[in-house]
Amino acid sequence: MHVPDGFIDAPTSAVTGVVAAGAIAVSLRGARRELDERTAPLAGLVAAFIFAVQMLNFPVAAGTSGHLLGGALAAILVGPYTGVLCVSVVLLMQGILFADGGLTALGVNITDMAIVTTVVAYALFRGLVKVLPRTRRSVTVASFVAALVSVPAAALAFTLLYWIGGTTDVSIGKVATAMVGVHLLIGIGEAAITALTVGAVIAVRPDLVYGARGLTQRLKLRVNGELVDAPQAEPAAAPAARSHRKVWITGLVTSLVLAGFVSFYASADPDGLEKVAADKGIDKKTEEHAAADSPLADYGVEDITDARLSGGLAGVIGVGVTVVAGSAVFWAVRRRHSDDTSPTNTNTTV
Fold first, then answer.
1. pTM over 0.85
2. Which of 90, 85, 78 is nearest to 248 (CA)?
């Protein structure tokens, strides 16, 4: 659902840019509370994983494909504020390096794909886990539903923005119907990917899933015929650290394989927005991307003629750049939080 330059007029794009900048500023502050020794190292990896999976367009209807948006996945794994930052990092890398999503439309894309999806998904997710049984399976089910709803919500948000500042005169009702219809189908794929990923992490390290915190049930022991809470053992630091590294390495290798190899087999059909834009005439005033001459434009490496090799290298480079950029941002936020809460920065009165 990457919006190119020319779909939305300049005033609306400018307003969404301000909204996006404000949301990122709020998210930077909120992420300080979410990021800790568990989530900070994983946040950059989550961004890289979203980048990789977004390269895997899957068919949803005749001549139409879809791909992960990632807001729900990021919010549930590392928190809603950090989730907004994760998707924003991905969109920035895609726009600058790969000419995917217009630069003047960056505010539109962040508002739609990072803010709307994350807010809608996490609000629904939290509501569901409060009423469902306190089990890991409930977290997976809530992840599926939240991700499913977040995609048509983003489609509605785009339709609203197009109604306000679209550059072509088209029936907004027909645009809304087409956008929501196709993105309901895409939402099923989003939900499946999100639930499978969250479920896989929960199975290995449930403490690393932000949305699953506080849901662990205490072990019960029968003492003199009565059930009592078993004492909680202190976790061993060294094994946890090794397990943490194992999760990180496994996630990075998976991202590299998806972007560098599996992406070659992704659907070549236009995604939901591209298909609707072509059918309804939204794309009549599409502008050439400012980074169209990038050596990585369109997810290929310049001067490499072999399509498989070119796309694979571009994917690997994208994952590498995204994990480095994301990790730098999240470590800086975490470091700032540690500095703000250190004893030397605490004001005391005598």
1. yes
2. 78
- Pairing assessment for the beta strands 226-229 and 220-223 based on DSSP bridges: antiparallel
Closest of 5, 48, 19, 16 to residue 327, by C-alpha? 48
pLDDT for 316: 97
What was the pLDDT predicted at 235? 45
**Would you say how long the chain is, in residues?**
350
Question: 10 Å Cβ neighbour count for 64?
Answer: 20
Closest CA to 102 of 172, 32, 12: 12
Match 């059918």 to its residue by tokens. Answer: 279
As given in the structure block, the two tokens for residue 12 are 């609306």
Distance CA 206, CA 86 (A): 20
Q: Where do we find the tokens 């956008």?
A: 179
Positions in the chain short of pLDDT 50: 218-219, 233-242, 346, 348-350
Sorted by where each starts, the structural domains of the chain and their CATH numbers stand as 10-216+247-345 (1.10.1760.20)
Q: pLDDT (tens digit, 9 = 90+) per residue, 34-68?
A: 988 777 778 999 999 999 999 999 999 889 999 99
Element spanning 60, H or E: strand 58-61
Q: Which amino acid is at 196?
A: L
Task: Report residue 175 as tokens.
Answer: 């645009």
Q: How many angstroms separate the CA atoms of 184 and 206, rounded? A: 29
- pLDDT at position 61 is 85
- CA dihedral 106→315→180→173, nearest 10 degrees, is 50
Element of type H or E holding 178:
helix 172-204
Name the DSSP class of 224.
T
Distance from C-alpha of 152 to C-alpha of 1, rounded to nearest angstrom: 11
